[in-house]
Design a protein that fits this description.
Oligomer: single chain
Structural class: alpha/beta
CATH topology: TIM Barrel
Radius of gyration: 17 Å
CATH class: Alpha Beta
Largest sheet: 7 strands, parallel, barrel
Number of domains: 1
Helix content: 25-40%
Number of strands: 10
Order of helices and strands: EHEHEHEHHEHEHEEEHE
Strand content: 15-25%
């Protein structure tokens, strides 16, 4: 059976006069785009531009909602009620839905950003809020989540499809989560290492950690962060490496 996998990247993270990442260079080499919705990055002009750019390249579009944390780029934990989290996700995903609709496109997926994603890995109420909000907006949306996480379970519980995600440019702990960015060697930006560990994850369902090997299971989508140093180089190398390994790259909505 032919192996297939999606490559997703966080895009549209510029804000006003500030440019983050290189969307134009990254877009041709990915299959799904996670577009910032204004809470951690992005603004109406950037959202509209990124949606149009994704449409031009035939890239599947997803919303990348976060905590309302522009100053911290959405990477600081916030203590919100379940109702607040639900409504913040609806607000952000709904906004991107409308931008997509104006150019004849629709959303494929929802992937929480930063601290919201990490909290949804382990916290039931946070994951439940994200799943409930997504389901309310469209029941054909796909949730991107770490395998066996609380978000994975919550999304499936409400009847949503889940794309199990592997982070090509982030180190893993033996417990299955991502090593915090503040720690040394938490970010991986060597092209060869990114390719080797990703192919291994897709083919074998495992990833090396500092303390051993972690079984992660089936991988549907691979993430490279748009603001990782050398992100464009990493994505290009990854695409070539997957082709060499005879792993077909296409948007996850086509095969999940």
């Amino acid at each position: 059976m032919e192996l297939k996998v999606d490559i997703n990247c966080d895009l549209g993270e510029s804000y006003g006069a500030y440019t983050i990442g290189n969307d134009e260079e990254l877009m041709p080499h990915i299959s799904s785009a996670n577009i910032a919705c204004g809470f951690h990055a992005g603004d109406p002009m950037t959202m509209a531009k990124t949606v149009r750019l994704a449409g031009e390249f035939g890239i599947a579009i997803g919303a990348h909602p976060s905590f309302p944390d522009l100053m911290g780029f959405g990477r600081r934990n916030m203590q919100l009620t379940t109702e607040e989290t639900t409504n913040y996700v609806i607000y952000q995903v709904g906004a991107l839905q409308v931008f997509a609709k104006t150019v004849g496109l629709s959303l494929q997926h929802v992937k929480p950003h930063g601290a919201l994603y990490n909290m949804a890995v382990r916290e039931e109420e946070t994951s439940k809020a994200i799943a409930t909000a997504t389901k309310a907006l469209a029941d054909d949306l796909i949730i991107f989540a770490l395998p066996k996480s609380m978000l994975d379970k919550a999304a499936k519980k409400v009847g949503l499809r889940v794309a199990c995600e592997f982070f090509a440019d982030r180190a893993y702990s033996l417990g299955g989560g991502l090593v915090p960015r503040q720690q040394i060697n938490s970010i991986i930006n060597e092209p060869l290492k990114v390719v080797e560990r990703t192919v291994k994850a897709v083919v074998e369902g495992t990833v090396a950690t500092n303390n051993g090997e972690l079984k992660i299971g089936e991988v549907h989508t691979i993430c490279v962060h748009g603001d990782t140093p050398n992100a464009a180089m990493l994505v290009k190398a990854l695409r070539k490496g997957l082709d060499k390994a005879h792993i077909k790259v296409e948007s996850v909505g086509k095969f999940l």
